[in-house]
Amino acid sequence: MNRIQRKPIRFLLASLALLLVAGCGESVYGPSGAQDPGVLLVTLTQGGGEDLAWTSDGTELVYAVAGELRAVSASTHTVRRLDTGPSVVIQALSRAGARIYFASSLSAPGPNDPNSLIGRVNPIAGSAEILLTSRSGPDQHVIVSADERFLATNGVLYDLGTGGQINLPVGTAFGFSPDGSQLLYYQAQNGLLIGAPSLISTADGSSSEPLQSPSGSFHYGHRWDGNSLQLLDFSRDDEALRLFEIDAVTGVHRALAEFGSNPFFPAILPVATWSLDGRTLAIWIEQGSGSSRRSNLYVIRSGSAPVVVASVITGLDTGVGFPVFSPSGNSVAYPYYLDGGGTSLYMKSGI
Question: Which residues of the chain register pLDDT less than 50?
Answer without folding.
Answer: 1-34, 263
